[in-house]
């Protein structure tokens, strides 16, 4: 038996099956495992000899918070649920030559998410919650998911801003989470730190669980709705459990297989440098050190939740 290094408050670093050996929910995606090498020849891959980490690594992440739940009172007697949410996205720029990490770009957004046909922006003190009308009946339980779209758009904006402010074309952008509709960003990899789906055939799972720190699997192609090239990588500092410290990395399907393999090699010499330690982070080693610092900074930019809740209460009271 192994103790998962993650604080139980954050769930688990992987969703284990009945045997505890890894992700239990099989994916329905079509997977091509013969991209880099034939499946029969799969084995752990070390980073290419002599390959250097980029001098500049950009890491982007976003945070969100539900500030208040609301209900509307329509003229026809109906009522719709609403969610006032704050969200922020930012980029931390790591200059490895100088040993400096700094916030390169950050933006905050606030929105009112509801299916109400009559609701508009809500001004709470000095803060404006922009209306985001959702489709369907707008059940309260489904409103938090609607925040992801505007947050992703904000992440794309800050990523472009960070690249426009002096990139020489040799940096690497690491997106925390799947790429999804951020696939158009150049020199970008998606970093998935929790594993909930089993993408590979059972016969290839031992290659993943047999990875040593810094090693990766061969590149494979995912035929999901978002598609893309993908591979697994193990970070240093894991507890020793079969899937501990294993992350899934992906890149745009618009790249050639050769370009994807090149990024896979680059990830192997880059991501392990930022792995967190258990005494510093309850989600070590997967929650990368710059990402953890960025999350703390972004949550501070969201403002005091209690003050915003009070401002929303006062603002809605004035409309009655």
Protein model, in words:
The chain starts with 24 loop residues before the first strand and ends with a helix. It has six helices and 13 strands. A hairpin with a 2-residue loop joins strand 6 (122-124) and strand 7. With 320 residues, it is α/β, with parallel strands linked by helices. 41% of the residues are buried. The model has no long low-confidence stretch (mean pLDDT 88).
The multimeric state of the shown protein is: single chain
Number of strands: 13
Helix tally?
A: 6
Q: Mind summarizing the main beta sheet?
A: 11 strands, mixed
Features:
single chain; 320 residues; alpha/beta; 11-stranded mixed sheet; two-stranded parallel ribbon; 6 helices; 13 strands; 28% strand
Describe the structure concisely.
The chain is α/β, with parallel strands linked by helices and 320 residues long. The chain has helices spanning 143-146, 148-164, 205-209, 257-270, 289-301, 305-318, and strands spanning 25-26, 31-32, 56-71, 81-95, 100-114, 122-124, 127-133, 172-176, 188-192, 197-198, 220-222, 228-234, 246-251. The mean pLDDT is 88.
